[in-house]
């Protein structure tokens, strides 16, 4: 791979996309700065994939404007497209070609050196699977191959649509390292994901979208700080009785849950100090707000199709 490089600026200006009576994208706007790692989060049907496809130049919006480094990606300018890498939510391969042959074929389209295939197989953990035909790969292996194909041209901008779907926890964590390295080298990365922990760890900023609109946009930490929810402290079973715990300074409520006591507080320092004085710190756990709490607060908890 190249060393440090310049990422590309991505702009969405009042994007609108309609399918029949459904307004899948309803005035979405945001800007991704060069070298930024940006996430689009939202429930199923929120408009994430459609927005990404507009930015990739795969769909023409009904309204608004998309720009990549100041150019309309829908014009399919080879100078812009050649600097972009795209991993789609559903990828199709030449079924009888091996993983190595797939990458050789994609690389030939960009005049990439043959050594690029070996680099990418190593990068996504498929070095031992290079001789396996695409139709014999597991779902997780196909997902990793799709990501490798998106990187074959050593792009300055990478679009990833749910890149870690179907991956086991180990492969998912390893891929996080790969994506972080891509971004650290100066590339712009834009991804959609349903994993809130993934977005918290990887993204500089996220946009939470629902029903085709942006509900909030900021860094994960800033979004979490803006959510006014109490800290939950769970005590080890038998550490304190519920009535004793409820009387501690700073405790808003105390409930017995499966033999353990759960405290709710907006003054965790005062509560932890009081617990330390009573030698009740062993085995406790503390849980503050997370990006998942922000997501559920903004989008609700009902099931989506």
TrEMBL record:
Keywords: Antibiotic resistance, ATP-binding, Cell membrane, Membrane, Nucleotide-binding, Translocase, Transport
Compartment annotation: Cell membrane
An individual GO BP term: response to antibiotic
Keyword Chaperone appears in the UniProt entry: no
PROSITE patterns: ABC_TRANSPORTER_1, ABC_TRANSPORTER_2
Family annotation (InterPro entries): AAA+_ATPase, ABC_transporter-like_ATP-bd, ABC_transporter-like_CS, ABC_transporter_ATP-binding, P-loop_NTPase
Ranges for domain ABC transporter: 10-236
GO molecular function, one term: ATP hydrolysis activity
Bilayer topology annotation: Peripheral membrane protein
Pfam families: ABC_tran (PF00005)
Domain of life (superkingdom): Bacteria
Main location class: membrane
Gene3D superfamilies per UniProt: P-loop containing nucleotide triphosphate hydrolases
GO cellular component, one term: plasma membrane
Similarity comment: family membership: Belongs to the ABC transporter superfamily.
Protein name: ABC transporter ATP-binding protein
């Amino acid at each position: 791979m190249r060393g440090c490089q310049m990422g590309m600026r991505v702009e969405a200006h009042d994007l609108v996309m309609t399918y029949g009576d459904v307004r899948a994208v309803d005035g979405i706007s945001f800007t991704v700065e060069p070298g930024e790692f940006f996430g689009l989060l939202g429930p199923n049907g929120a408009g994430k994939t459609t927005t990404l496809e507009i930015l990739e130049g795969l769909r023409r919006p009904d309204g608004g404007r998309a720009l990549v480094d100041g150019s309309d990606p829908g014009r399919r300018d080879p100078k812009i497209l050649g600097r972009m890498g795209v991993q789609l939510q559903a990828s199709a391969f030449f079924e009888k070609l091996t993983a190595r042959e797939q990458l050789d074929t994609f690389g030939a389209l960009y005049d990439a050196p043959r050594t690029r295939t070996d680099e990418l197989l190593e990068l996504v953990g498929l070095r031992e699977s290079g001789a396996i035909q695409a139709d014999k790969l597991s779902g997780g292996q196909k997902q990793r191959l799709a990501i490798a194909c998106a990187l074959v041209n050593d792009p300055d901008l990478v679009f990833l649509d749910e890149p870690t779907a179907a991956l086991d926890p180990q492969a998912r964590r390893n891929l996080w390292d790969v994506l972080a390295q891509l971004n650290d080298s100066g590339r712009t990365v834009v991804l959609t994901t349903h994993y809130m922990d993934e977005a918290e760890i990887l993204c500089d900023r996220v946009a939470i979208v629902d029903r085709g609109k942006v509900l909030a946009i900021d860094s994960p930490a800033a979004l979490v700080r803006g959510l006014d929810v109490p800290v939950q402290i769970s005590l080890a079973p038998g550490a304190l009785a519920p009535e004793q715990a409820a009387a501690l300074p700073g405790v808003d409520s105390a409930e017995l849950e499966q033999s353990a006591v759960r405290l709710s507080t907006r003054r965790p320092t005062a509560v932890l100090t009081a617990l330390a004085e009573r030698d009740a710190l062993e085995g406790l756990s503390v849980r503050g707000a997370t990006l998942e709490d922000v997501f559920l607060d903004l989008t609700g908890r009902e099931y989506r199709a």
